[in-house]
Predict the structure of DUF2075 domain-containing protein.
Amino acid sequence: MIIYNETSSNFLIHIFENKIGYVLKENVYKRMNKVVSNSELQSWERSLPQMAKVLRDARLEKDSHVLLEYKLPSTEKRIDFLITGQDQTGKKNAMIIELKQWQKAKTAEGNGIVKTHLGGRERETVHPSYQASSYKRFLLSFNESLYTDTSIQLSSCAYLHNYIPKTNDEPLLDPRYTGYLNEAPLFFQFGDRKLAKRINSLVSEGKGEGIADAIEHGRIRPSKKLVETVGSLIEGNEEFILLDEQKVAYEKVLNIYNNLNTKTDQKQVIIIKGGPGTGKSVIGLNLMSYLLKDEAYAEYITPNQAFREILRKKVIGSSGYVEVRDLFKGSASYVHTPKNYFDVLICDEAHRLKEQGHMKKKIEGENQATQIIRSSKVSVFFVDDQQKISKKDIGSIKLIEEEATKQGAETNTVELESQYRCSGSGNYISWLDSLLGYKDEDVSLEGEFDFQVVSNPHELTKEIVEKRGGRILAGYAWDWTKKSSGDGLPKDVVIEEHDFALPWNDPNRIDWAIHPDCANQIGCIHTVQGLEMDYVGVIIGKDLGYDPETDSLIVRREEFKDKGARPAKPKKGQEDPLFDLVRNTYKTLMTRGMKGCYVYCYVEELDKYIREQIKQN
């Protein structure tokens, strides 16, 4: 969606008459039914007059076209400024210009990352040249008009109209950013004439209307190259081979999709039920590959950001084709998506869906499941009700069925049972269900899965991290200090009796679970759900205990530190909903291991109880 598509001459008139803010504000309300904030209005009124000065200097024909605020489909990102037209040889051009009001910046660790002052404090963000070039790559990978009509040449740059670069050692021009600077040049405050000259060389002859309309109305779907890349990365990869009931579930979804009656609005909702390790993500990724090859417009949704990042890295592999990332979205991406905009949406870890996204305005009567079903003709939800770990998690099977009914969708259900994690031991999962009270039956712990209880957290670290290259996880029984100290991450997970202290996982490392520098950090439920490792060690904190008198597990409310996830205290006589959230958390943590799980219990009674369950069986 583009908010503004006008000739360059009209744009200059709107600036000259001080109307640009009003015009954009009205367009946003008409096209998106949204009210523009004062800060966004001020941003336009500060940056766009600077571009008007550049365009006047560029001496363009009046029918060059200016496009403002192009919202990249199913993302919250918007391209600030696009200008289209022909050069003196008759070639069609479109130029992306990313506008920034920055005044200073610093280099930062990470590929294409810088530091600057945003939102009242210094933050890490992407280099402006990276941002501009990534928008260019997105359009070339997803806008059908651009990847099929090769006569339109797309270029990108960034303009920091308030930024005076340092004479020597300007951080934004550091050699580490050379690749991005070559792809999308950077123009500073006194570089306006150079920018004008560049614009003149590309679009001076005008005739930009057809190019602008092609971009605005181009059908959004992945390019053939992107589709082939995804397919080649999944096919032949043993990690993504479908086995037995995985294949059955996969074929059922395809059968429903292939028999879809496109002449009606009849929606289809497919719920795939499966516990940890039943191969839900393998099915989802294979579906994604097939659908893209069939020219369906499909996206893969995961509410958990860390899980999403790991999936992206697995699929991208060594190809370096970073545009694959744009096929993977968060569950808050569909608030304003029109009905049936997508052919298929695949939602993994759907039990983590929320009422609304972070910093999102709630639409009355809608939640994230509503939005996904509304936005697609076919929606596929992978769900495990026993992995809901927060009061904010609403994505139960029951809720998805109710939302499907409200929108007149047919609901189909598939159930997965075979275990492909935990050494393929369905026995371990059954034993764990019995241990945590999900099943009222005695189950013997047998099979190849390596489960042990250790006596102290140092032993856990030695066995899991040092010997087996695994990761340590813990329940949310320790506070999380958000600000790092001068010595690095604060060591929040403290067990004084054993002189043990390690930090929670680095919140700036979404790929914590696979990054070698993070081996001696403790993973929390929010960064490991959906992931798997060969070996995991789990620290069970004081939030979960055992009462010998009642022979039952207990939850200590005061020891559960995730305040945002904690439900209200129940009325007298009612069951505490926190009980299910805590045991769901530990079941999830204790099923991340492919080969083994070692456990250390902070509470002595719980340690004895688990050891007894191992011995007596």
Summary: The chain has three domains: 2-217, 224-415, 445-616.
